[in-house]
Structures are given as C-alpha cells and as structure tokens.
Amino acid sequence: xxxxxxxxxxxxxxIDSSLAAVLLHEQGYEVVGMTMKTWDYAxxxxxxxxxxxxxxxxxxxxxxxxxxxxxxxxxxxxxxxxGDYVIDHFTSEYLAxxxxxxxxxCNTHIKWDALLxxxxxxGCDFIATGHYAKLKENNGRYFIAKGLxxxxxxxxxxxxxxxxxxxxxxxxxxxxTKPKIREMAIERGFHELVNKSESYEICFVPDxxxxxxxxxxxPGLEEQVKGGTFVMEDGTVVGEHxxxxxxxxxxRKGLKIALGYPVxxxxxxxxxxxxxxxxxxxxxxxxxxxxxxxxxxxEDLNGQRLDTTTKVRYNDSGSPAVIEQAGETMxxxxxxxxxxxxxxxxxxxxxxxxxxxxxxxxxxxxxx
Length: 368
Fold this sequence. Notes:
Blueprint: E1 6-10, H1 15-26, E2 30-37, H2 56-69, E3 73-77, H3 79-95, H4 102-121, E4 126-128, E5 133-138, E6 141-146, H5 163-166, E7 169-170, H6 178-187, H7 191-194, H8 210-217, H9 221-225, E8 229-232, E9 237-240, E10 264-269, E11 274-278, E12 284-295, E13 305-311, E14 319-326, E15 329-339, E16 346-351, E17 354-365
Parallel strand pairs: 1-2, 1-4, 2-3, 4-7, 8-11
Antiparallel strand pairs: 5-6, 8-9, 10-11, 12-15, 12-17, 13-14, 13-16, 14-15, 16-17
C-alpha cells in the first residue's frame, strides 16, 4: 500500500481523466482506474454514431492507459441506476415545463455515490476525477472552488456533492490549464489523447435533439401536448405551438411564428399548455427563488444576506447578487437584471472563486 493511499480514479477515456490518473500515479498514489458505463447509444434511437464516455473505444482507451502504467482497471455498469434517476428526471422535468441539467444531477447523485461505494469495496481511501476545479477545506468544511483555467472551469457542475463525498475526493487538474494538460500528455507519449475530440452533448442525447429523445421516450407525447397556444406577456394569443415540453426559456429559433419582430420564450405554463413569448427586454428578471439547496463553504447562512456572484447556467459568466436563505429556499436579488432564467436549471453562488453552494431554480420574479 502506498503511503499516500489508494485512489479510485474515474476514467472516461478522454485526456482530462486519463491525465488525472497519470498524475496521481506519478505522485505516488496507488491508482485503480474505473470507467462507468452509463448509457447504451443504441437505446437512444438517435442518428449520431456512438462516441464519448460510454463508447467501447473510450473504455478501451482508459484500459490501455491503465495497462501501460501497471495499475488495475474496472468497468462499472451503472446503466440501470443512471437511467432510473437521471433520465427519468430529465424526462419528467421537461414534462413539468422546466429545463433540466442532467450533467449536474449525474455528478452529484450518481457518479460520486457510485464511485464511493466501489471505492469502499476495493479498499480505496479516495476517489478522483478529471474535473477542472479545486477542492478546499476550512474549519472542517469542504468546498469547491474555480479551477485555474477559467475557460474550462467545471465548479458549476459540482455544487451538489456532499461533504462526506468531498472529504474523500481529489481533483488533480484544479491548478492546471488545458494547454498544459495537452503538453503533459505529449511529453508522456500519449499523443492519441491530444487528438481525441471532446463531446459537449448530453451523453444520452448524442444527436443533441432532446425533442426527438422525449418523443421516443414518451410514446404518444405529441398527441398529449398538441393544441397549446403561444401567448404574449399580456395574454394575447398569437399562434399555436407543438407542445410546451418542446420549448425552453430564452429560445428564439424554431418557434415557427412571425410577428414582424424577434420574440423569445419567457415562460412555460404546463397547466394551460401555454408558451409565453416576449421581446428580448422581457426576458430579464430581477431575482429568483432556488430550492433543494446544498451549502458547501458555510453550514448555514443563519439569516444573513451575502454578496455573491451567481451563475444561472453552465456557460454563464455570473452576475452580482445578494442571497438570503429562508429555510430550504434561497431568495436571490440581482444587482442588475439577468436574462433567460430557466426553472429547472442549477443556480450556483460564488464568493470570489469559492462555491458557497447551489440549488435548483424554482421561479424568477421582477420587483416592480
């Protein structure tokens, strides 16, 4: 047993997780590689060729790295638990008129839990991933912080990981940039990793057509939701849509409606099967309510109001906001109105680079 301990590394077969395993091996950890099989592309019914973290090619790439460096590698089949939780949630959120974020849900409720259970069985002290984020500890609290490479930072996706899980987590890439990772891979002879393309789609929607996925997932869905109306902010009916689950807040393209000026989806009303449209300016909101909170940096805000930078989606640069906790709900007041706040997406609160915590957006509001 290594003096540094035994670590189970989640290896997707891509450059980031592979280098995470390589670096930990070089630092003297006893490394065990594990690739998680979350989804069968054949079951998606999409048209895109199987690629990404669940493909046979990626599994073989992860195994090759492990063999080359002399540490064991396992394949973990979590398709059943992934499908039952992540995909069912993805589907039900759209049917509820919300816009889900399955990658955050998978990280926090499936991958970390699955890794820790297997880590215990394999006698591993820690788990590790190739996320571009940092892990900090202060006064017994573990929390995530932004990675050095802000262009690749993945701290937004990790707000939901529990304290217990974070206490056993290692994030080797937090102080590295993507160009440096590529350079290190080349130095070590892993040229094939540098040339691999990266996938940014949802893994179980490889053709990026979530509407087609929903139609295949829920037989008869089109018939169930057709006949709804497009309405303006004042309630004026301006057309008929294809069904409320097939639209998201902020959407402009694909509305198939001409009013002589650009309009966007500002709200989705499931009960009345209405999709509300408005101008670009009408997308903006002064605040929002967030629930199902997970606080990281602080155990409790104790009723205090905190100045934060708050992100409302993954690629959001963040906006100044004051947050105020009331029980299980966070009320967020933006200093300057924010566009296209979508219920169902994750909201993450930052103090500098540190993640205070996050939750799921319930609704947005204007103060006047």
